[in-house]
Amino acid sequence: QVQLVEIGGGSVQAGGSLRLSCAASGRPFSSLALAWFRQAPGKERDFVAAISWSGRSTTYDDSVKGRFTISRDNFKNTVYLQMNFLKPDDTAVYYCAAETREPTHDYASGIEFDYEYWGQGTQVTVSS
User: Fold this and answer.
1) What is the dihedral of CA 110, 72, 1, 98, to 10 degrees?
2) How many CA atoms lie within 13 A of 81 on its CB side?
3) Which of 68, 86, 87, 90 fits as disulfide partner to 64, beta carbons 3.0 to 4.6 Å?
């Protein structure tokens, strides 16, 4: 089992920045591919960003490209989502997700069903 704990959500005005963190435990962190998803009120959960186990591969949803950056610190067992130039449409509950990967599978996935483990979510609210 993998436990994921997100922190860093909050309220910010449009144009502002937030950084989300997700600490993982239960499995070797370097074996985990990680991602962020989000769910706005009344909508389905959507992909935001993903990073491979090595950190060499990342992928983003088009709606956040150029504004959000996903990164990981394999010494701190933590994945981050730096969110800049936030918009009201970014308002959602943000979820961290993880899946175990073989070393030869060093790729970032934006597919929700690829992920076995999920955090509890953290609220991000962007006001106009």
Assistant:
1) -10
2) 31
3) 68
pLDDT tens per residue across span 60-118:
999 999 999 999 999 999 999 999 999 999 999 999 999 998 888 999 999 999 999 99
φ/ψ (deg, to 5) at 105: -105, 70
CB neighbourhood size of 7 (10 A) = 14
Instruction: Answer for the pair 32, 88: CB distance below 8 angstroms, yes or no.
Output: no
Give the amino acid at 100. T
Token pair of 52, please? Answer: 């491979």
Q: Is the pLDDT of residue 55 over 90?
A: yes
Integer Cα distance of 51 and 103 in angstroms: 14
